[in-house]
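User: Hey, quick favor. My workstation is busy. Could you predict this chain's structure for me?
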Amino acid sequence: MPTSRICKRCGKPIDDFAPSGLCPHCLLESSPDFGLDKSMTEATTPSPIQNPESEKSKIKNPTLRYFGDYELVEEIARGGMGVVYKARQVSLNRTVAVKMILAGQLASPAEVQRFRHEAEAAANLQHPNIVAIHEVGEHDGQHYFSMDYIEGKDLAGLLRDGPLPAKRAAAYVKTIAGAIHYAHSKGVLHRDLKPSNILIDAADQLRVTDFGLAKKQTDPSGLTLSGAVMGTPAYMSPEQAAGKSKEVGPSSDVYSLGAILYCLLTARPPFVGEAMHDTLVQVLEAEPIPPRLLNRSVPRDLEAICLKCLEKSPTRRYSTAQALADDLHRFQNGEPVQASKDYAGSRLLRLLVQETRHPEILRLWCHIWMWQSAQLFLLFLLTNVLIWRHASNIWAFVALWVPGLTWILAVVWWKRFRRGPPLTPIERKMRAIWWMFAAGFVLTAVISQSMELKLIQLLPFVALEFGLAFGCMALMLGGEFYITAVLCALLAIVLVRLPQSAAALIGATIGVGLFVPSWSHARRRA
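Assistant: No problem, here it is.
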């Protein structure tokens, strides 16, 4: 038979088997403390947040809740994993912030491990611009840690009134960059830098907080699965957006610092999509709108610093957060900044030789394009042989090109469409481009025949059409295809003076333009 005992909260009689040692009414009221729905109040684990009467405390306010040595005053933040309370540590009589796992005792081992990982990462960082951790522990099955309580607001709240003045924005990001460089020197990557994770105290001093996605550089696991997208899409680096956790490093935090600077200058992040997927696609593929187009008061040097941080390739960003802080220091002092020199001198060159934005496309097509480059070169070379032999019958060229193109298309169909995975959106766009090119090529031939033009007079237009097609590919893929597009356009001009060798020169240009990026990517894969 169950015996009667007393509810820990209200003192009403309850049975021995009462969940959590509480009466039904108190149990229902206590569940939101851990982010639980009222439908989950059947949990039998005891609540770590207790009634003041059960604690030996001099606090007289009966509305306060107690959690071990802490009086929980109010909830101040809530995220996907944790909840943060403003609290008073009774033993030391000081105000702190206490963070707990949102799921409480129902947290999975993985959630507990990640929570403790955050606490451990932040606890090892002692810097005036990083929120300090005071205590890490567990109370009645609820994991928690206490930290500095910052009275003020975050950068996101500051931006509700619009962008900041350039000097103030530069000073803020310089301070944050110094703190992040310190964290990097201790082997800790933040991986979730954004305005809402930068707190501002009453003295206008910044504090970096929320190391929930932090990763130790010496830890090969980092609690992140390969292919998992970790962070806030609008502020994460392209390598994070692509789920390439092994490539995430200090330069990834530098990118996020640039995104914060961009937001401070324009009151919006670099990329904004209607949905998370749209934002991720922009982070991977699009170039940010220059800040001066959104805010004409932004100095050019500060814009250059911001855009250098937001480079797609990690090797083209600042090598360290300290290098970013140093350039911002030069900007504050009116000295020439390194970013402006890089930006002015090599922007076009970087555009022409940048790595492809879609390596998965080259992975699927590199061997096909290498084969096609040889086939096309051979077809154009045989065309030039017919020209050298003064072939005037159009059917001779038709007899050469129809079987040749049929063979090329058969190889593509067999290796990619029949044996490969479904077409990606980028491949569908590429297919449309080359079908339009083929239609333009046929129409050009028909028009030239109706005007009784010679074949060699048609070839400069063929080179120009190839240049347009490669230019469209370059807009999607980037990399060396820009160079091929430019060479084809220039070749169209040269061929006016070299008509007898036009076909061979077109074949060589197209062959090299397809073969080189395909071969270099295949070599990197090997």
